[in-house]
Design brief:
Helix content: under 10%
Shape: globular
Number of helices: 2
Strand content: 35-45%
Largest sheet: 15 strands, antiparallel
CATH topology: Porin
Mean pLDDT: 86
Oligomer: single chain
Number of domains: 1
Radius of gyration: 18 Å
Strand order of the largest sheet: 14-13-12-11-10-9-8-7-6-5-4-3-2-1-17
Number of strands: 17
Order of helices and strands: HEEEEEEEEEEEEHEEEEE
């Protein structure tokens, strides 16, 4: 999996994570696939939270808790020396704001305001992205659609105002396909808006993110609030697999033509409770903290 992380570095994927479909900011976890991810064991796994991911002993990601409350996560920004730290702010015991700041001066910052339901699902969000130059800055509003059960995210429509303009001019529509409870595919369509504010499909370009061949084990970030990685995936859509309950063993990214698609396998070594603890080469390692 050392190669896997390097692939994600190239494509902007930050290796990890994430949560059960019923995970919320109260950090409850509920593994949901294939015997609960615990192979039917009657002894429940210990309550724990991911603390860091290292590659060749170098920290790639790190997560901070205050007791059982999540505070912030640090993720390496691709193949650069820039690290994004996302810090959460709670409003009425739910995450209301998430701000991602880079460690290198001049990097884009992302300031999200989010609204969560009782399951920890995000149902609305706004992002103010601030760049070194005003022309590259933008404000985005997001509309979330869930299935009839209220558990599975089916679509996110983003409308964006750029360079300080007051009118929306760009859109991104992410459409989700599932295999069981896991996100199998995200079709991300980007283009301009018409004068009436509707997506102009004639301008649209499609990128497809496929997360394939999930295992039946516990996602290592099942105690991290779902809204944290939902927000990060709005900025980096290749990370949407992190809100699945299990772990994909293959990632395929198909950018707009004529760029070629790229596939990479992922491997895992698990502990007795079916949490990933490393890749098969023992190069990429996961460290947990017991709650």
């Amino acid at each position: 999996m050392g190669k896997n992380y390097l692939f994600k570095v190239i494509t902007g994927v930050f290796f990890g994570l994430l949560v059960s479909c019923d995970n919320s900011s109260s950090d409850q976890f509920e593994p949901s696939a294939n015997n609960g991810g615990n192979n039917g064991n009657t002894t429940p796994p210990p309550a724990r939270v991911i603390e860091k991911i290292t590659l060749n002993n170098n920290v790639q990601e790190e997560y901070t808790m205050n007791g059982t409350a999540f505070q912030k996560g640090m993720l390496r920004d691709g193949n650069t020396n820039n690290y994004y730290t996302g810090t959460v702010t709670y409003i009425n015991n739910k995450i209301g704001k998430i701000k991602f700041l880079g460690s290198i001066g001049g990097s884009m910052s992302y300031d999200f305001s989010v609204s969560e339901d009782s399951k920890g699902n995000v149902y609305s969000a706004t992002c103010t992205a601030t760049a070194a130059t005003a022309l590259d800055s933008y404000v985005s509003d997001y509309i979330f659609t869930y299935d009839a059960s209220g558990k599975k995210l089916t679509k996110i429509l983003e409308k964006r105002k750029v360079a300080g303009n007051t009118a929306y001019s760009l859109f991104t529509e992410n459409t989700f396909t599932y295999n069981g409870d896991n996100i199998f595919k995200v079709e991300s369509t980007k283009g301009t808006l018409t004068a009436t504010g509707d997506p102009n499909l004639a301008t649209a370009k499609l990128t497809v993110y496929s997360f394939q061949n999930y295992d039946s084990k516990i996602n290592p970030f099942s105690t991290i609030p779902k809204s944290f990685f939902t927000a990060w995936s709005l900025a980096r859509p290749e990370n949407f697999y992190r809100i699945s309950p299990n772990n994909p063993t293959s990632l395929f990214v198909m950018p707009p033509s004529p760029a070629p698609g790229v596939n990479t396998p992922m491997t895992y070594v698990y502990d007795a409770f079916n949490y990933p603890v490393s890749d098969k080469d023992q190069i990429l390692k996961y460290t947990y903290r017991t709650l």
